[in-house]
Design goal:
Elements (H helix, E strand, L loop, with lengths): L5 E4 L7 E4 L8 E3 L8 E11 L8 E9 H5 L2
């Protein structure tokens, strides 16, 4: 599958940028906070990345999920 990578900025220092791709086509939406059950369908897949900015170095959690709004349109 040709994964589409997205470009993110560290939510803590806002200086370091990184690329991340959804784990599959089902989990197409993302959040830095765990999404509420009311906005997602099924399981959430968590990806952790460490900021490479030497002044920050915090662990970033990217939560991938299937958005409920997609199922509302079906």
């Amino acid at each position: 599958m040709g994964e589409s990578k997205l470009v993110f900025r560290c939510p803590y220092c806002e200086e370091w940028t990184f690329e991340a791709a959804p784990p599959d086509s089902w989990h197409s939406a993302f959040s830095f906070d765990e999404p509420l059950m009311s906005i997602r369908h099924g399981e959430v897949k968590k990806q952790t990345i460490v900021c490479q900015n030497q002044k920050c170095r915090k662990t970033i959690a990217v939560y991938w999920y299937a958005p409920m709004e997609y199922f509302d349109r079906m």
